[in-house]
Every structure is written in C-alpha cells, then in structure tokens.
Amino acid sequence: RHPAGPAICGTLHSVDQYLNIKLTDISVTDPEKYPHMLPVKNCFIRGSVVHYVQLPTDEVDTQLLQDAARKEALQQKQ
Amino acid sequence: MALMSFLRSFPLPRSAEGLRQQQPDTEAVLNRKGLGTGTLYIAENHLSWLDGSGLGFSLEYPTISLHAHLYVLVNAKFREESKGLVADEEEEDSDDDIEPIAEFRFVPSDKSSLEAMFTAMCECQALHPDPEDEDSDDYDGDEYDVEAHEQEQGDIPKFYTYEEGLSHLTAEGQATLERLEGTLSQSVSSQYNIAGIWTEDSVRDYEDGMEFEDADVDH
Prior knowledge:
The complex is a heterodimer of chains A (78) and B (219). Chain A is built from one helix and three strands, in the order βββα. Chain A is an alpha+beta fold. A three-stranded antiparallel sheet of chain A has the order 1-2-3, with no helix packed on it. Chain A starts with 7 loop residues before the first strand and ends with a helix. Chain B has 219 residues and is α+β, with helices and mostly antiparallel strands. The longest helix of chain B has 13 residues, at 171-183. The radius of gyration of chain B is 25 Å and the shape is elongated. The two termini of chain B are 39 Å apart. Chains A and B meet through strand 1, strand 3 and helix 1 of A and strand 6, helix 1 and helix 4 of B.
C-alpha cells in the first residue's frame, strides 16, 4: 500500500524474490479515487512500492510458514 | 521523481533493444484524458507509446507501481503544456509527502492481446528491481517457475504459487503438514512438536532414539 496509492485487496497468486506481487480478484478500497481500477481483476504490483501487506491472520499457518522458510534457508546453505 | 520523457518524437523501439510486445491500434489515456491512438511498445527497458504522428512517451519500469490489463499506475506527475505532455520536476508543493500518481490506460483494438501484454509487462518489470533489493546475488531461485518453464528463460525471477510452495516441502515437511491438518487435536506422536523441520541429516543424528526437546531453533 502506497501513501498516495491505492490499498488493494485480493488473492495472492504469486510472489517473486523482489516481492513483486501478483494478485487476482482484486478490489480497491478507494474506488472513487481510482475508478479505472474497477474493471481490473488481476494486477502486478512492483515490490518496491509496497508499504505493507496485510494477511488475514486466521488463515495463516505459521507452522507451515516456518517449515518452508527453514527449508529454504537450508537449501541456500548447501 | 520524474523519470518520464515528454510527449515527443523518439526512435521506434527495436527488437534488438529488448522489444517484447508491440501493439498497434492502441489508445492511450492519461488521467482520463485521451491521447489518441497509437502503438504500444513493451520493451525490456521502457514502456513506450507513439501516436500516428510519431509523438509519444516512454515510461521506465521503476516508476510503474502497478499494472493490470489495460491499466498502468505510474509514480510520476504529468501536466499538459501547450505542446504536449510534460513530466513534473520536483515542485515546492505542500504535497511534499505525497508521492505523485498518474494513471494510464491502454486500450488496444485487439482485446485478445491483453494477456500477452500483461505478461510481457510483468517480465520486463521484474528486470528492474530497486538496487537495494539485490542483496543475495547467488540466489538462483527455484526450478519451480511457471513462466521460466514455459519460456526457458532463466533470468526471470521466480514466482511461487501456492501449489508450487507445497511441492517445495520435503517428505518430512509434508508429513508435518498432514499431521497439522489432520491431527492437531490429538496428542499422538507429539514428541515431535517442533519449531522447525528436520531433514534427512537431523534424522540420522537422532537415530539412537534421542528425543527432541522443544527446541526453538534460531537461524
């Protein structure tokens, strides 16, 4: 979310190493300010402009996240 | 921060210069103002548009905050002068804290090209990370990248989708996942209640039957 930019809610499709984000089924919290984004369903967001990402806390499996993160770290050491 | 060029004449982007997609008959709209019909060029270093008289503009990817089918959000300000589109330099604004925003829309007459345009822009955008993002140079990413699979291009950053993330799990990781999903309420085999995963190596280490403690492993 960018201070002057839109806050966008959607489904996380994928993310890359630069934290560029692809979202699907998006909705904009300020449609009056960004009416042209209304018909947009999928978008690509440049990672460097993202201020924060808010995940739905009850849908995040932290155990699984730790699993994956540690596996990644181990792989990189090899 | 203005990295834009004026609405002006400039040489056509060429394939040798990393032109990925070219879409003629495309209308450009800036902040709701139509600029006419021209050709959109999606190249590795610039997103450009030229109208029939050879006037146009060129965007650099670091200024593109967001793009979607038809829609591009740019971190720059434009104002119209009598002779065309001028990018604002830094002004003594009271809006100093608010970064400039410009909305572009590109409307190709050929709607079926939208997907290819979107994908081309994603790829080109990923070629321009911010300098401070490039810290782990040796990180090659994963072999699980759909786009790289399809196009055999190893320099495209890897996107992880949900399914691919799951397939990254080791056998132990998958076992953990299944256990978490199915048997959280049960206390069977809970001596392996861990804060991390264990690999083949660590399993071997504990072959003599040593029990795990609740270790908080710090990496």
